[in-house]
Design brief:
Order of helices and strands: EEEHEEEHEHEEEHEEEEHHH
Number of strands: 14
Number of domains: 3
Largest sheet: 4 strands, antiparallel
Domain SHOCT: 252-279
Helix content: 25-40%
Pfam families: DUF4429 (PF14472), SHOCT (PF09851)
CATH class of the largest domain: Mainly Beta
CATH architecture of the largest domain: Roll
InterPro entries: DUF4429, SHOCT
Radius of gyration: 20 Å
Protein name: DUF4429 domain-containing protein
Domain DUF4429: 12-106, 137-226
Distance between the termini: 52 Å
Length: 282
Amino acid sequence: MGDVLAGFHAVWEFESDSVLIRYERGIRTPKLFQALGERRIPLSAVEEVRLAPGRRGTVVLRLLPRAGADPLMEAADGQLKEGSDPYRLVLPAERESQAASCAEELTARLTGSGPADRYLVAAPEAPLQFKAYDGKATFDGTSVRFRWSSTGASSAKWKAGDQSYPVTGLSGVEWRSPEALEGYLRLRSFDAAPDAAPEPDQDPAAVVFGLGYGPVHESLPFAAAVLAAVRSHGPVPAAVPRCRRDPADIAERIRHLGELHQAGLVTDEEFAGKKAQLLAEL
């Protein structure tokens, strides 16, 4: 195609079989974009191309990746905020005709549909690391290591000691955004029983996030890189549904959440969302 679209925070270069996305490094650019730098999205990884009106005189060109084609989006599991979606390009409304032309041509060049049987978009490269609330997580491409913090880690984690997990023994990764309550990164292993998994702050196979700890632009690329390494050693099994929680435990957590809400430490939106999430576990 040879066309180029420069939008807010990114430039898309359209090639015959892919889209090269170069993210800006400006102050207002989402930190996740800056961390990613650039990404090449093969058209075989794209399910659909959409163009829609945006806010305040803008239009939005968006690629919808195929399920299982991008480890970053698989790890995110729909938790990214709209403004941090790396597949969205926001443009001034006066460039709508050019964007529409690109969208039409891209659609004509799409070659795949449905779930992908392998990752088609490259994962962030190791080594990677980030600081969680209760420890430091590092990944060298073959093993994930958790080193516990003397101030944030629970006694259960201190008793278990620092942990090292070769990717050959892992079956997947569970990432919960730090922008929501109780964010964490948990490693799933083949020999662990998902129904018996302890709470993340008590689980030596998990690190928990907090204010300023495990931010999206650090912990999500980390999770994606680990997930891609796991997949390279074999297919990732489907996630096993969690067991139902003890109603008394759920009631206690909702009570504690209500206290945080009354104290002004949790917004109305966060309270309603987390309460609904807890009730869904009954």
